[in-house]
């Protein structure tokens, strides 16, 4: 494919178009973006989408371009519309760059408000050794064809609000973890599914940041309703993903004091563990 | 105990004395400390000790005092001696404060070098609801008496260097995960142990940050020798620990591309999961 054709193909994919950041003239390390309402769910922009936006800005600003470990603190609720991301090179090394970034939006009075703060280490996934020594096994789950799509859920699950995000996804949930959509959550705190993009875009290291927070929250499988606001989300990208849909497995073991962790594993079509994630979230009240 | 007596007791404990930070006059949010060589292992200061130092400064600087989630990026190697920690209140909320901090030391030319950068959310553990809904179970391991202390290892394990850290700990390793000390690692990538302080200090939320990175690295149980430098460490503190030694369980599942995750669980004497941790580290070459 020519470079021009590759550029056109990139522009044709919703995820690339909606995470595209534009350098701000005269402000080194700062990027502008219009956050797309296409990635809203219930009442808010998806946290994985926001992490991908900030991750993309860091990948452009830093000497290394692949996120290896990235942590976001969600400070205030982002809204569709204009935003600015300011990045900082914390330390540039030979094989690794450390960076920091914040995403800001203006409130009704025109005041800049910080939405997200991120610290990260970026590297070059292709330069890592090919050695793999792993005790991790892919999640046991039915084939893509045997899993259920969002459209099959009678009412979209235990919450009401925007489902725009679902239109961007090719998401198939393991029926064993989809009982909540029919009012019968398993109580185990697990959600597993196949995750592609509706427009056929393959995954890459950047979209793994999105994949780690794209499935319905494990709270639904615990029988809880409503919004699960993420306080902090960390994603480790362990390998460039092979083409094809990902398998994503989310688990919550410990809900305590109104907080819960959500552990994610992301596997590619070559049975490789391509990302690990953990977030700390407020448990829904319901 | 009177406040004066409590203060004296605190000063009498090595961990409190060696993490004590002193506000720098005329520089709001900045603290000075003399990093103690008592927390070195092999050739470097322990990463959990350094996280505790920065965590203590944040706990003093922020409106809320208990770490709920804290992430550190280790940029350059800290050394025993003077350091300064600069903290920033990122956002102060009713139940949560977000903060950032960096620890700096001067290099041989007198230039300030950043050692660690941290972002964190602090809250009030005692104000959280008492509700616990958990599928997590304490690690299966022998009693404290049946576990082995560091002194029983014939040569301190597969590395040489400082063992000062071990003198500060009351550490008993599960024999099933201590084979590496006798040249027979299990290969499973697990280390489990009981962790107290040698001087009898009980654990508190701050020392959980230390506990998450105080055991020998899982790399030893994988048969790898040498230093396992941490790139990033995140700790979630889920509850104030009950008195008595902790049980700490570390697991590495995926070593790939020269990087490995290390997942930690910290349990208190009341069988409560008091902290969860994950780090991304460079695998030793050996």
Description:
The structure is a homodimer of 286-residue chains. The first copy, chain A, has helices at 3-11, 14-19, 47-61, 164-168, 205-211, 218-221; strands at 22-23, 30-35, 40-41, 44-45, 66-74, 81-92, 97-106, 112-123, 132-134, 148-149, 169-173, 190-197, 230-237, 246-251, 254-256, 259-267, 273-282. By secondary structure, chain A is of the alpha+beta class. In chain A, strands 1, 2, 5, 6, 7, 8, 10, 11, 12, 13, 14, 15, 16 and 17 form a 14-stranded antiparallel sheet that branches. Chain A has a two-stranded antiparallel sheet with strand order 3-4. In chain A, α3 packs antiparallel against α5. The N and C termini of chain A lie far apart (51 Å). Residues 1-7 of chain A have low confidence and may be disordered.
């Amino acid at each position: 494919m020519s470079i021009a054709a590759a550029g056109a193909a990139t522009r044709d994919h919703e995820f690339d178009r909606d995470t595209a950041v534009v350098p701000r003239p005269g402000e080194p390390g700062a990027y502008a973006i219009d956050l797309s309402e296409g990635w809203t769910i219930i009442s808010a922009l998806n946290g994985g989408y926001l992490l991908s936006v900030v991750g993309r800005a860091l990948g452009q600003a830093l000497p290394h371009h692949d996120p290896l470990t990235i942590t976001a603190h969600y400070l205030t609720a982002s809204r569709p519309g204009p935003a600015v991301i300011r990045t900082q090179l914390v330390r540039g090394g030979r094989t690794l760059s450390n960076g920091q970034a914040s995403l800001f939006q203006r409130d009704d009075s025109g005041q800049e408000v910080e939405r997200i703060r991120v610290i990260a280490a970026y590297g070059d996934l292709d330069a890592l050794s090919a050695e793999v020594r792993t005790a991790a096994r892919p999640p046991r789950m039915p084939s893509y064809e045997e899993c259920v799509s969002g459209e099959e859920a009678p009412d979209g699950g235990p919450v009401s609000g925007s489902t725009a995000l679902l239109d961007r996804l090719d998401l198939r949930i393991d029926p064993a973890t989809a009982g909540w959509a029919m009012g019968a959550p398993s109580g185990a705190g697990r959600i597993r599914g196949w995750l592609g993009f509706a427009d056929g875009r393959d995954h890459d290291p950047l979209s793994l940041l999105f994949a780690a927070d794209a499935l319905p929250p494990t709270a639904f499988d615990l029988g809880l309703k409503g919004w699960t606001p993420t306080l902090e989300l960390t994603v480790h990208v362990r390998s460039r993903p092979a083409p094809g849909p990902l398998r994503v497995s989310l688990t919550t073991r410990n809900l305590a004091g109104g907080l819960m962790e959500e552990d994610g594993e992301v596997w590619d079509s070559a049975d490789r563990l391509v990302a690990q994630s953990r977030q700390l979230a407020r448990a829904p009240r319901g």
